């Protein structure tokens, strides 16, 4: 069906259904960028060729893509069409429906090899309703088709100041929240529109508020810090300050800690605070935010007032703990051939290590969980894996005590092997805790963080594949050599109690797995 032509009017039918762009007004669509192509229908048809099907009843009826004619008119920056719709009684607070996740662009093999990616139109994936939360990690203009739900949010997202002012004059409220709890200012932070942000918060008729929280508990300040909008974050900081005095171009200001500091008014930890988001951020904008005078001053005050004393105390306790642990390991002699003095020192060191492990797990751990809460404590451990390894090492040392008692009472060598294995795992894990204290130095901090990112990333993936391959081939060699002399222990065919070089390969039970590990090491 041929589209209806409305001279000098864009995509409008006053009864509510978007009809078509004027076929002769090609200059109207020349400014539409690939991001705005998200509004094309997913059925592959050109929106310029959509005709009138069934006449709707009112101007607020939603279209097939979940938008009213007012949204379409705002999208194409047609102020005349907006005025026409508002004149006919359209609801300026009508919301769109559907989720806002576009389909991913396709890449061909040739494009992948050449490093070039074809820009394709991303379509709305509209449903009848959607309550999915917006992922802040993907809230960018390149990967997201989220422009808000109200016509005013559409106008703000695209920077149409004239339409924004007109809708405000006719009752639109910039502080109304959509299904995600976002206001116009949240929308502007997501779309990174600093010019429109300044216009909205200083509007003479209806000012947008910066202290409204969305469904994730984020204000515009904390949202800007979370997704790395540096300019908007600084703008929100300047809006919140209170000027004490000024002399020429020098001024003294105070900044409220609410929303910035990690501690709330009630003393709880605020995981949505700006400081938490900036410190945990991964972008260059997050790094640049640390150079801000307010954030830098806050970090220095927190370090000098609280963190420094605890840091030094924990470092001293760790050094004492490692001293006794090293003494207990080096003085231990299971053959009872050492002097009485060494035995006494060894037992004293073992008791001190055991007391230190129990204190770390019971007193210090319980204190941290009590102050932070269990969920907050677990979330904090994700950022410091060396601390988790240290606590696991303390637990292994405590678990080794029952096996020591069983070995002394039953004289069963297997219990001694289990004890040695637990201690062998605990000792390196305890020394790794030193890496936690090395983070504060510029020389070692970045290197330590990089090591743990490699361990949790590529090395962890390689380790999984390595274990699968070694386990599979270990079973294969066990089946192949189980009926041969090489499949048994070396004592069965060796003339003495030592294994010769030719008899190092053993494929009996678990030894087959260890032999495969030796093979991969080139031995």
What's a concise summary of this model?
The protein has 523 residues and is mainly alpha-helical. It has helices spanning 69-75, 79-87, 109-114, 151-158, 161-169, 184-191, 194-201, 220-227, 230-240, 274-280, 284-289, 293-330, 340-372, 374-381, 385-410, 413-431, 434-437, 445-481, 510-520; strands at residues 242-247, 250-254.
Can you tell me about this structure?
The chain folds into 4 domains: 1-209, Ankyrin repeat-containing domain (Serine Threonine Protein Phosphatase 5, Tetratricopeptide repeat), CATH 1.25.40; 210-291, no CATH class; 304-440; 451-523, no CATH class. The chain is mainly α and 523 residues long. It has 19 helices and 2 strands. The longest helix has 38 residues, at 293-330. Strands 1-2 form a two-stranded antiparallel sheet. Residues 103-135 are annotated as: Disordered. It is found in: Cell membrane. Residues 122-135 have a biased composition (Polar residues). InterPro entries: Ankyrin_rpt, Ankyrin_rpt-contain_sf, TRPV.
Written as H for each helix and E for each strand, in order along the chain, the element string is HHHHHHHHHEEHHHHHHHHHH
CATH homologous group name of the largest domain: Ankyrin repeat-containing domain
The coarse overall form would be elongated
Q: Could you give a short account of the major beta sheet?
A: 2 strands, antiparallel
Low-confidence stretches: 1-57, 101-143, 487-495, 497-504
Which radius of gyration do the C-alpha atoms yield?
34 Å
- List the total number of helices: 19
CATH topology of the largest domain: Serine Threonine Protein Phosphatase 5, Tetratricopeptide repeat
The chain-level structural class is: mainly alpha
Number of domains: 4
CATH class of the largest domain: Mainly Alpha
Please tally the β strands and state the result: 2
What's the CATH architecture name of the largest domain? Alpha Horseshoe
- Average pLDDT, to the nearest integer? 75
Biggest sheet: strand arrangement: 1-2
Main location: membrane
GO molecular function, one term: calcium channel activity
GO cellular component, one term: plasma membrane
Membrane topology: Multi-pass membrane protein
């Amino acid at each position: 069906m041929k589209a209806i032509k409305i001279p000098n009017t864009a995509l409008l039918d006053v009864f509510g259904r978007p009809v078509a762009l004027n076929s002769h007004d090609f200059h109207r669509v020349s400014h539409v960028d690939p991001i705005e192509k998200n509004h094309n229908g997913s059925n592959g048809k050109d929106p310029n060729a959509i005709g009138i099907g069934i006449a709707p009843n009112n101007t607020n009826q939603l279209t097939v893509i979940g938008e009213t004619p007012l949204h379409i008119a705002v999208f194409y920056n047609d102020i005349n069409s907006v005025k026409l719709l508002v004149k006919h009684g359209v609801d300026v607070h009508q919301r769109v429906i559907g989720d806002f996740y576009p389909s991913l662009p396709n890449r061909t093999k040739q494009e992948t090899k050449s490093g070039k990616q074809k820009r394709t139109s991303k379509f709305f994936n509209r449903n009848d309703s959607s309550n999915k939360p917006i992922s802040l990690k993907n809230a960018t203009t390149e990967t997201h088709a989220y422009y808000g739900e109200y016509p005013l949010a559409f106008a703000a997202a695209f920077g149409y100041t004239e339409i924004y002012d007109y809708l405000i004059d006719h009752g639109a409220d910039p502080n109304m929240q959509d299904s995600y709890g976002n206001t116009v200012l949240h929308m502007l932070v997501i779309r990174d529109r600093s010019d429109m942000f300044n216009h909205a918060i200083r509007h003479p008729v209806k000012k947008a508020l910066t202290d409204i929280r969305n469904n994730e508990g984020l204000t515009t300040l904390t949202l800007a810090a979370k997704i790395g909008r540096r300019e908007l974050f600084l703008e929100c900081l300047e809006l919140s300050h209170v000027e004490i005095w000024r002399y020429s171009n020098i001024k003294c200001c105070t900044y409220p800690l609410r929303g910035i500091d990690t501690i709330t008014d009630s003393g709880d930890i605020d995981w949505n605070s700006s400081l938490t988001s900036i410190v945990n951020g991964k972008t260059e904008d997050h790094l640049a935010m640390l150079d801000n005078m307010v954030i830098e001053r806050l970090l220095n005050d927190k370090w000098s007032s609280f963190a420094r004393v605890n840091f030094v105390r924990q470092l001293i306790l760790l050094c004492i703990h490692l001293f006794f642990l090293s003494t207990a390991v080096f003085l231990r002699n299971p053959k009872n051939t050492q002097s009485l003095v060494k035995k006494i020192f060894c037992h004293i060191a073992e008791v001190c290590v055991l007391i230190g492990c129990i204190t770390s797990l019971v007193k210090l751990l319980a204190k941290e969980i009590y102050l932070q809460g269990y969920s907050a404590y677990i979330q904090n451990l994700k950022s410091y894996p060396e601390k988790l390894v240290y606590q696991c090492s303390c637990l292994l040392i405590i678990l080794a005590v029952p096996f020591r008692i069983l070995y002394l009472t039953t004289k069963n060598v297997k219990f001694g092997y289990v004890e040695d294995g637990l201690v062998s795992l605990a000792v390196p894990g305890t020394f790794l805790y030193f890496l936690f204290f090395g983070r504060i130095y510029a020389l070692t901090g970045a290197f330590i963080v990089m090591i743990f990112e490699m361990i949790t990333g590529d090395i962890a993936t390689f380790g999984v594949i390595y274990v699968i391959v070694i386990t599979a081939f270990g079973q294969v060699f066990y089946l192949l050599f189980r009926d041969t002399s090489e499949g048994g222990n070396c004592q069965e065919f060796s003339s003495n109690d030592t294994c010769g070089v030719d008899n190092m390969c053993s494929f009996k039970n678990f030894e087959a797995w260890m032999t495969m590990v030796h093979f991969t090491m080139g031995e």
